[in-house]
UniProtKB/TrEMBL annotation:
Annotated organism of origin: Wickerhamomyces pijperi
GO molecular function: acid phosphatase activity
Pfam (any one): Acid_PPase
Top-level lineage group: Eukaryota
PANTHER family named among the record's database cross-references: MAGNESIUM-DEPENDENT PHOSPHATASE 1 (PTHR17901:SF14), MAGNESIUM-DEPENDENT PHOSPHATASE 1 MDP1 (PTHR17901)
Cited InterPro entries: HAD-like_sf (IPR036412), HAD_sf (IPR023214), HAD_SF_ppase_IIIC (IPR010033), MDP_1_eu_arc (IPR010036)
Record protein name field: Magnesium-dependent phosphatase-1
Chain coiled-coil ranges: none
Amino acid sequence: MYPKVVVFDLDYTLWPCWCDTHISPPVKAKSTDIVIDKRKFELSFYKDVPKIFEELIANDVLIVSASRTCAPAVARKLLTLLHINDQPAIDHFDFMEWGTFSKTKHIKAAMDRIKQEMDLDIPFEEVILFDDEWRNKDVESIGVHFAHLPNEDVGLTYDIFQKALFSYREKKQL
């Protein structure tokens, strides 16, 4: 059993930096899985991210990005240049909610868009947020399952992903 929606933070969740402070535009592709900025800083997804996305896509899970980035153009460029399964990563996101407000507001906005644009009324209890910042655990106040990523060096791993799914499934069976 998978949730209907999985929400990913970007920075230190999908990749090992803050795109609004560590990346110096312009950014260009070195390959389909590595980008480089003007200071020659190289960036790619954490190693398990493509596998996780492929599994979610194969199971018809909606994928949302929620980020407090102050550099949405940089984030968009990174997601356009980095590929998953031979397609730009950005194409795998159903919705993106970015801005300086809380993840609770991001998720509420995404769920409103899903309802309006896809005619799907998905309860918050069918959503998991993967995020490196503990403060975003407040999404549990609206029923969203929170999966914390405790180590910025490794970010989102397949093990963390599996543990979050297990925890989500156990909570759903209560």
